[in-house]
Amino acid sequence: MDIKIFPDKQALASAAADRAANIIRNSITQRGHARIIAATGASQFEFLEVLTNLPELDWGRVEMFHLDEYIGIPETHPASFCKYLRERLIDKAGVGKYHLLNGTRDPADVIREVSQEFRRAPVDVAFVGVGENGHLAFNDPPADFDSDQPYAVVSLDEACRRQQLNEGWFSSLEHVPKRAISMTIRQILKSREILCIVPDARKAQAVKNCFEGTVSPMAPASALQLHPATIVYLDPLSSSLLSSETRVERV
Description:
The protein is an alpha/beta fold. The protein has helices at residues 9-31, 45-51, 81-93, 107-118, 158-166, 185-189, 204-211, and strands at residues 2-5, 34-38, 62-66, 68-70, 97-99, 125-128, 151-155, 179-183, 193-198, 230-234, 249-250.
């Protein structure tokens, strides 16, 4: 795992998008297609904006998997991650093939269908973030590090639900769902490369807990320390609590 600190959020987004585009291009050149995992949330806004505007990316040869989705939220809801991905990635870029998690269907059926697609070939790159409570996808602490299934139904803790409220996706905490479908930790770690995009001061404590501490289910994103081809993209605010002894690259 490599940690890189950029001068600001926009520089972070541009660097992560350039790396993502190179991975996608190389995968298409080598195998004729690219398989990606896409995250959502406010932390991904700038990254996806830059990525979808880069030239000479053959999005028609890209297959996208969905990281997580609330159970019980229709795609018409402002907080729907299906809606988010359609608007900010799929429709905008023209992604050729995609597997969205339908939050209004039986979760067991959704998990079974998308998991079958997952097992066809490895994923070239996963785009992920880190929650304020250290979650990776919707794997809140204590996260399950042992499940070998691609997806699982998870319970969302109050810290996670408050983050969604504070980001403006819901009008009250009572409206934030308590369950979601989430990609498992092990499935994320099966990706050939992982780009972890984490801007903003509100993520600083989680960054410190997950990338300075030991690998622990209580800091779910700490599992990324186990992946040799992970790059963590930080800005001065999200990296502000890191010790001077932590190995980082300042770009």
